[in-house]
Fold these 2 entries.
Entry 1:
Amino acid sequence: MKRLLRLIAKQWITYALGFTALVLAIVLDMYNPYYVGSIIDRVILGGELAYLKTALLALVGITFARAVLGYTKEYMFDLSSSKVIVELRKKLFDHIQGLSFAFFDRNNTGELMSRIKEDTDNIMSAICYGFMLFLEQVIYFGVATVILFTIDWRLALVSLVTMPLIEYVVFRLEKQVGKQYEKISDQRAVLNMTAQENIAGVRVVKAFGREKHEILKFLKQNEENYRINYDLVKSMATYNPLIEFLSNLVSVLVITAGGYFVIGGEMSLGTLVAFSNYIWMLIWPLRMMGWLTSVLAQCVASVKKIDKLFDEEPDIKNYQDPKVPEEIKGHVEFRDVCFEYDGASVLKDINIDARPGGTIAIMGMTGAGKTTLINLIGRYYDCTSGSVYFDGIDVREMDLAVLRKNVSVVMQDTFLFSDTIEANIKFGAGEVPDEVFRAACRDAMVDEFVSQMPDGYQTVIGERGIGLSGGQKQRISIARALVRDAKVLVLDDSTSALDMETEYAIQWAMERRKGFTCFIIAHRISAVKNADEILYFEDGRIVERGTHDELLRLRGRYYETYREQYRDYVEALEKEVV
Ligand code: DGT
Ligand code: MG
């Protein structure tokens, strides 16, 4: 809440202008019934025709000034609130971006999206018109009450009698409607998710012949949505006429009682008319209070949710006195590293020494812990025990920005943004010299297919990379890693979708580049056999390690994998040996 108030305080000038316009508009509004009343008394009843011109001019003037002030008020409140929300959203987004991988493992995307969109929208409506109307109605109510008592305290009492009743019904309605709105919002989220999943996963739906089932599922939810909305309309239809009735009852009571005073000569007709106009300045605030309190309550709830997110600290923070190696060479060492996800051991006693310029290949069954291992290099997670060193500095003590700038990762799941191919490749690399960009595209074999596209590197990739083959997407993400010219390159199963020929070409280009330490996770022997050291993982442990030849001689798991992949060739060889 403090965070929000600080942002609001920053916009105090525009808010103050809006507030001034609001007060002035109310003051003018108060003159309206007065002039109407005096027209009746002095012109219609008193025959004072000269006054008509003054009164009408005053009314026109009031209406005009009221319009200008109304515009100023709305504009100022809108302007300041939009600024507050833009700033809040930016801060929230920056904060979320700064959180660690572990946070995203725990929280789902949909929920985070709704913090950024819906909760900030709720706050926006509250601090903009919610807050504005609330102030306005409170002032109307206060001023109108004073005026009514000044005109005639007996009539004022009569009109105030029914007010609690109106307020009671208003709050009853709000309570019911509030619950229904909540249901609608929850249901809308489910409906959106179903629609989104089905559209995003349309290929799976069609491939498995589930169209009918999915349509039925959607129709059912749509019907549920209709039902809840219908309930809402029903509640409105029950309570609104009652509120209308009670509001009009006040008028009837006032006119009846006031009529007696007028007939008895205690009050002029014009005063009565003015009085009954002022009454609406009491009724409207009451009628709106239910809705306004719920808007404000919703805002408080949203602020609490957002505050909780802001309180979330990144697990991985820069060291208080971050170290930077004198010369960045790309020497990566794992010493007795163990890692656990929520208490479940994933990596055990890992020792690796990746010399600058060397290549470490990692093999192993799915779920063996390969991705987890390489995530420790760029410090996306911190190891549970042991240490990872980058050029002799424990990564936990190294400057995080320098570390990540020097560790380039091609992730296992390719993610491309809906942007041009060039922007996707240059993503996060800052200024990229043209030669570096071209060399990266050539080495990652991106040039080969992009040069055939009509828009070349300016081709915009469709949502989630639609329009490119799996291999093409992998090649783009390899180029993305290469343009960064980092000292450590990590390839997580990133050539799996490539044909042998392209894979060789890329490997060959990498050899030629060299000058960086490379970690390659792969399943194909062809991708790992030239590495300086091959590590074979099983259940979070390195069970075999050595060069290709050493591992073949060992006749262990690596050899088994080799046999599987080169069965015919091996059999032929063995026969020859016999
Ligand atoms: P892959 O990519 O299928 O060849 O498998 P790896 O070797 O890359 O496996 P990895 O490191 O992704 O997962 C190792 C184990 O850790 C596996 O049993 C699943 C578990 N694991 C991975 N990510 C998380 C996570 O975010 N939370 C928890 N609790 N466990 C995880
Ligand atoms: Mg993996």
Note: The two ends are 81 Å apart (CA to CA).
Entry 2:
Amino acid sequence: MCGIVGYVGEKKCTPILLNGLKNLEYRGYDSAGIAVLEKNSIQIRKAKGRVKNLEELMQKDLCEGTIGIAHTRWATHGKPSKENAHPHEDNSHSFALVHNGIIENYKQLRRFLKEQDYTFYSETDTEVIPNLIHYYYTKQEKTKKGFLQAVALACKKLEGSFAILVLCKDFPKTIILARRNSPLVVGKGENEYYIASDMPAILEYTRDFYFLEDNEITLLEKDSIDFFDFDLDKHKKELVHSGLNRHASSKNGYQDFMLKEIEEQPQAIFETLQKEIELPLSRKEISSFSQIYIVACGTAMHAGLVGKTCIESFCKIPTFVEIASEFRYRNPLVDSDTLCIFISQSGETADTIAALKLAKQKGAKTIAISNVMGSSLVREADMYFYTYAGPEIAVASTKAYTSQVCLLCMIAISLAKQLKTTSKNELESFKKELLQLPQEIESILDNKDSIQLLAKQLYLEKDMFFLGRGIDYATCLEASLKLKEISYIHSEAYPAGELKHGPIALIESNTAVVGILTEETLLDKTISNLQEVMARGAKIFVVTNQVLPENNFDFIFSVPKTNRFLSPILSIVPFQLFSYYIAKEKDLDIDKPRNLAKSVTVE
Ligand code: G6P
């Protein structure tokens, strides 16, 4: 989805802005643009399509300034086109602005501005903002304070979500930033500041960041930064040092981020397991929870399905997993006796944030799990825990997923300890098994060549079925999602016992069926289901940590045996690799699959 980059300092800003936009390409977008302040004019360049189109344009048509703003747009209001691309200007060409988010009352604002003789040249919701700023600016003194006041007044009129950067030709040293429900970070350098909607865009320049809050406005020059609320009351803000290394958001020799991130899983899990999980809740409070909800979207929801099994077993509290976009609109039965856990890699998924706000309104205690420091989800929640997977750039989530499952298991341990619902010994030995995971994943990665060979055999398949029971069904859902997302092969995940109730009609000679077999007590039952499809001509591919009885499956991949609740962390790895190698065979854009965005910040 949309991305923002900005720079103010002593260097030429164009290469920095273009590089920042390239670092954000993974988020998915359809056009890009830049505005640079040069003396007393604002130079704007835009291009439809990839950032490289903008770069080519800018090689012919240079912008030399040291202060600028840039944007990648993912169309919401109005088709992908040069006219709709950001930055947008006001009618007098005094202001240029980039915007992430959606202005929900843009139609009213547009009507109001048209009555004041403003004209609109794009179909976007965004174009109302620079014109509204201009409208208020005409009523102010033409000072920096007047500029700030105009932006603040405009922000107060906006409904919806926004992160904006604004340039004004009257103030060639200044950028104004503001946000509500859409992230913005400012990175500090020597006599320079870098701005971005996402930290990875600027991580190679600095590791010292200010995180903007909702309803906050910032006046930025190369050697000063001031924070205000929308009433222009000034406040101080802490500079936060990020422990992420500079290469965390580069490919570092890999052809694709996805493979790099799959291989980073041992490290991501190790880092996540290093932090102690202490819930800031008393035993009495924890005992009062009659139910737990885990709410998330996509892969994060699948992590929730695994977490549910572990939490229910250790804590004996009924636990429900829901898709955030459903939860938020169905008036769920959630109250002060409910603990709600929200999972989001980015911490910016609109539906997950809205679901969290709803749960809070209903009096539930809320926990956020996110991979992004200072993300919106974390800010909204009563308590939060981070996964320490490092920036995940590929759209298809891998290391964030396995880290989320680990973190949920740690939360289960912490709750169970307080509740005394599981013996200390059992929890201790579970912890030990958690700590074995990094090296067990390494051993799976060592065998990736056999997965690559399998992918070479199967990459032309049109459909695939994933079957499993119990906790393996959760892995089936995630494995099937990975395959769809990046290889565009249709696939379905089914609880193996449900197959006879419909989907078996789809099985014909040579249909590819994958079985996941880690549930020891359900092994025979799942094998019987696999035999049933084999009898109808299906080819069977199996991932297991069990010793299987004699069989004639077409392919068996063994993963190390671990605790039942941790097996999904190991058994998903071959499927991440499988999807990756299939997409590679098909020569697809693995890190940026069609139609998908890394972080879905709109409904
Ligand atoms: C998008 C991504 C998925 C991701 C989901 C939730 O759909 O393409 O990979 O699982 O959003 O993202 P979140 O950042 O909330 O975990």
Note: Residues 424-445 form the longest helix (22 residues).
